[in-house]
Amino acid sequence: MEKLDILDAGAALSCGCGPLLVIKSVDIPFKDATIAVPGIYTAAHILLRLWYTEGNNEKDSRFDRILLGIVSGEFDDGVIIH
Questions:
Q1: What is the residue-wise DSSP string for 12-51?
Q2: CA 22 to CA 25: how far, in whole Å?
Q3: In the predicted structure, residue 1 carries a pLDDT above the cut 90
Q4: What whole-number distance in Å separates Cα of residue 59 and Cα of residue 62?
Q5: Which residues touch 19 (CB under 8 Å, ≥6 apart)?
Q6: What domains sit in the chain, N to C, each tagged with a CATH number?
Q7: Of 29-33, 61-65, 78-82, which range is least confident?
Q8: Which of 39, 54, 9 is nearest to 78 (CA)?
Q9: Could you tell me if residue 76 is left (phi over 0), alpha (psi between -120 and 50 degrees) or otherwise beta?
Q10: Among residues 38, 39, 27, which one has the least CA distance to residue 64?
Q11: pLDDT digits over 21-55, tens only?
Q12: Worst-scoring range by mean pLDDT, 32-36, 44-48, 61-65, 75-79?
């Protein structure tokens, strides 16, 4: 049997795979929306900043709390990992 190791970091970015931007309502201007990100030093946050360079409204959140935070109103939008 092969010996497997769990790594402390990984990657899964390619065409059709990667972070998704979830928007609660199109009525909230994106520039005013509070956007949850799964960590400041993550590929998801970096890609958001590369795509939307004008914003400074991100809030760091545990990845498993982002969708619940959007539903509860804590965040307007969020970047989730696949």
A1: --BTTBS-EEEES-TTS-GGG--EEES-TTSHHHHHHHHH
A2: 9
A3: no
A4: 10
A5: 43, 44, 47, 48, 79, 80, 81, 82
A6: 20-80 (3.40.190.10)
A7: 78-82
A8: 39
A9: alpha
A10: 38
A11: 999 998 998 889 999 999 999 888 988 998 888 87
A12: 44-48
| Cα separation, 20 vs 59, whole angstroms | 16
Q: Whole-angstrom Cα distance, residue 67 to residue 72?
A: 9
From residue 76, give the alpha-carbon distance in Å to each of 3, 7, 16, 42, 60: 43, 33, 24, 20, 13
Amino acid at 50: L
Among 2-6, 19-23, 73-77, the minimum mean pLDDT is found in 2-6
How many residues comprise the chain? 82
Q: Pull the structure tokens for residue 54.
A: 């004008």
